[in-house]
Design goal:
Blueprint lengths: L3 E7 L4 E8 L1 H8 L5 H18 L6 E8 L4 E9 L3 E8 L11 H5 L6 E8 L9 E6 L5 H13 L3 E7 L4 E8 L20 H9 L4 H6 L2 H8 L5 E8 L1 E2 L5 H11 L1 H17 L2
Parallel strand pairs: 5-11
Antiparallel strand pairs: 1-2, 1-10, 2-9, 3-4, 3-6, 4-5, 6-7, 8-9
Length: 278
């Protein structure tokens, strides 16, 4: 197994896909934190999803996915770029109790205050290339459902995601429906297609994958088991890695994405702790 992302197309059909598997890179993240299993697994799923979505960025820059919540978890955040570098963390509330098998909704949308934020941050900014941030209500019980709702609502791109994570591995599979002619930037041009049922068929096949398979099998074997009769064409692969190169400027940029409310809440928690120390 290795830390890789592979992109592929279904020949003769307007369907593209990606699969990412994180082993060493994910264990590096896990080793830096001591989160409850359900929190750790949701962060792993969000990390895999962020890498899948960043693979099709049309600019040189970063994608940041954030899930703000009013439950035990105040914030999930994953930042990654086209090269496959990513970093991820969670901010939990002081004294929060988390059930062993809590869903994402249990963690961040306990009172209906959850929200999902997508930030696109170009490395080089210009008059026509500025940071973009989209904020949408929290919809769904899992990371995959939240992102599928976002893609349908904001990007208007039919997208399906299958995600899984534990203490040793984080995995994600993405399928997208492309226009019958032409493709999105960053993908090979699609000729007029004959296989109009390809999108429905690929979803049905992918729905048969089990969490145990995603977490135990190499990515190539997962694709082989699911789509062994389908003419897939792999056209781009890349390595993924955990990378945390913190600096004063980067910390300041991260704080700006959190917003005033989150920063004030964090400072209040720190002050309460300091004043309570003997």
């Amino acid at each position: 197994m290795s830390d890789t992302l592979q992109r592929f197309l279904l020949q003769g059909a307007p369907v593209r896909g990606e699969i990412v598997s994180l082993d060493r890179a994910w264990t590096e993240v896990v080793a830096r934190h001591d989160f409850p299993d359900s929190v750790r697994n949701c962060l792993g799923e969000l990390s895999a999803a962020a890498l899948l979505l960043s693979a099709s960025l049309k600019f040189d820059g970063k994608l940041v996915l954030q899930i703000h919540g009013d439950g035990p978890v105040a914030l999930f955040v994953v930042e990654c770029d086209q090269s496959g570098s990513f970093r991820a963390t969670v901010k939990m509330r002081e004294g929060a109790l988390v059930a062993p098998h809590a869903s994402l909704r249990d963690l961040v949308d306990r009172n209906g205050g959850g929200r999902f934020v997508v930030t696109l941050d170009p490395r080089i900014r210009s008059a026509t290339r500025q940071p973009y941030q989209g904020i949408v209500p929290f919809e769904g019980d899992s990371v995959s459902q939240v992102l599928e709702h976002y893609m349908a609502r904001s990007e208007q791109v039919p997208t399906r995601l299958w995600l899984a994570a534990d203490g040793k591995r984080s995995v994600g599979l993405l399928l997208q429906r492309l226009p019958d002619e032409g493709g999105k930037a960053g993908t090979p041009a699609m000729p007029a297609t004959e296989d109009q049922d390809g999108w429905n068929r690929m979803q049905i096949l992918a729905d048969t994958v089990r969490t145990e398979e995603l977490l135990s099998l190499p990515a190539k074997q997962v694709l082989g088991r699911l789509f062994w009769q389908e003419p897939l064409h792999a056209f781009d692969g890349r390595e993924c890695r955990f990378a945390c190169s913190c600096s004063r400027e980067k910390v300041a940029a991260m704080l700006r994405t959190l917003g005033r409310e989150e920063i004030d809440e964090t400072l209040a928690d720190i002050l309460e702790y300091v004043h309570g120390c003997p």
